[in-house]
Amino acid sequence: MSAAVKTEQEIESGRQRLRLWVTSGPGLVWIMLFLLLPSAVLLGIAFFSADDYGSPVLPLSVQPFQQVAGYSLLGWDPGNIIIVLRSLEQAGIATLVSALLSYPLVFFILSRPASIRPLLLLFIVLPSWTNQVVRTYAWMELLGPAAPVSWVAHILHAVPPDLGLAPGRFAVTTGLAYNYLPYMIVPLYASAEKLDWTLVEAGRDLYAAGLRLFWHTVFPQTLPGLLSGIIFVAIPAFGDYVVPQLLGGDKALMIGSLIANQFTETPDWPYGAALTIIMLVFTGLGLVGFRVLTRKLGGAEEATI
Amino acid sequence: MKLLSCLAVGALALGLGAPQIARAETPTLNLFIWSDYIDPALITKFEKQCNCKVVETDYESNAEMEAKLRAGGDAQYDVVVPSSYYVPELEDEGLIQPLDHGKLTNFSNLAARFQNPTYDPGDKYSIPYQWGTTGILYDPAKIKGNPDGWGLLFDPKENPNYPFVIPKGEGRDQIGAACAYLGYGFNCAEKSQWIAAAKLIEQTKKRPNFAGFVDETPTRDQEKSGLVAAGMAYNGDVGQCVADGSCTKLKFYLPKEGSEIWVDTMAIPAKAPHPELGLEFINFILDANNGADLSNFNQYASPNAASQKQLTGIMASDLINPSDAEMKNLVFLAPLRGAKYKLFNQIWTSVLQ
């Protein structure tokens, strides 16, 4: 009798296992084929030498990684470190700006009747249905020398009279924050929607107001959404090169364009592969570090993707 | 190494490649070409002639084309259209195959100037498709004083205020232009000259009105919409916008210190699936009528001597046909091979950083 029960349990767990495989199988196959396999090939290429035209050839070599560290025929050069720092700064500023813009917007949407909130959210997501390049071109025109926004900048002496706001740092920050804003708003909205307003009331009853009230009652409750948003914005902004190219005039290389160049204009596949691997490792470490941080801050399960 | 890159592409193309092999009953010519570089009517005409299907795939730069060929594309495409200075590189890498001149009955239509070129002696690997020049396009409403040299880009006094750009690309034209401005000639080849040119571009980068690295065709478009006032451009691109009336206020010139004349060529990848169709296509383009149709479509000059009589409108102008005096100042970019290529790339990368 007891043996029969055990078998039924076994059958049940077998079914569960099957269901697990059927449901997660396609996703796993997708990740294997299009993420793990190409990454493995890149990892392989990164340990080859480059011939004069940049193709990977034998013997195996660690030279690509030395190049990543900044060593080349012309001696050591801090260029790569500067590029990484510049990309980190770009990601940091874009994340900060989109977070600052998102809070008021999210609470504005929440203050509207429940029936029109989905529509307002849709308006925010809608522009991302068109191609990023197209939208970035539009910003180029909007911030160009002849555009009204640039006239204002001329009057304020922020920009010399014959130049525009684009290309420039302001334009890059604007473009990035604009592009990734929806990825910050959506998770933040999900958190804010569940906000326990009684805690805010309690804060008010204790005579807290303004920033203090926000910091002690609203901020901790929306932290899970904010952390998810930071991941969604910071990682793609770190590797973005369309916006710096079109709105920054590519005056300074970003890590994304540095890698792209190694496979096209100035070919060196092993070096490009090594750069990619290093970038993946750093992104991975960043994610793990973030996860640990999230755990420490507590109760932020949503943020652990 | 080939094995590795084949693996990479093979892995990705597992699902995509298989059906293509399966439906190979009607012969197909896989044409890999710059975007907007062939008249769709010509493709239809060729399909009728060869009783085959043409599949056109586009690219935006030589580098992009080469990367695809290296990643297994040399077994996918039947005709590619590299610029002249890329031909030796593709040859050294084993990515293109020698052409069977016995099948190219229209070869004699080519102007003598374009036969047996320095970049490909004996036309062994490549046949000229179209040619053009690289010069400076600027807005005379903003920039005064009739500039005539590379100083418009490199001398801060000639344009202290208005935004200008330099192409990004592979660096050959840019280093060449800086070399020409410094007096080394457009085809400078010494390491010290390259470094001096690189330093000049690095200084230029720091000028407040430098609006960035923008390639030739987008430069033309940004000048049309007033975003920039000066930059490098191709004469054919300018011909197109003069012909459609969208840039009549802009001025184009070939700098006096010397500039580039280039030829885009047709070549057949090393493992092309249908090389015989590829040859038929090359011969088709060499036909006098087809060569003329092509140039009248995209406003680039034709190397086909037999086509010249049929070229109309802007095609007959000075813009597309430089004078003999101008021709003396124009050079083909010398191909860079081997270690020189590597050195050049490292110098150019340091400029972009």
Write up this protein.
The complex is a heterodimer of chains A (about 300) and B (about 350). Chain A has about 300 residues and is mainly α. In chain A, the strands form two sheets. In chain A, strands 1-2 form a two-stranded antiparallel sheet. Chain A has a two-stranded antiparallel sheet with strand order 3-4. Chain A has twelve helices and four strands; from the N terminus they run H-E-E-H-E-E-H-H-H-H-H-H-H-H-H-H. Chain A has a single domain, classed as MetI-like (MetI-like fold, Orthogonal Bundle), CATH 1.10.3720. Chain B is of the alpha/beta class and about 350 residues long. Chain B has two domains: about 140 residues, 3-Layer(aba) Sandwich (D-Maltodextrin-Binding Protein, domain 2); about 150 residues, D-Maltodextrin-Binding Protein, domain 2. Helix content of chain B is about 40%, strand content about 15%. In chain B, helix 6 packs across helix 7 and helix 7 packs parallel to helix 13. Chain B is globular and about 60 Å long. The two termini of chain B are about 30 Å apart. Classes of the chains: A mainly alpha (about 300), B alpha/beta (about 350).
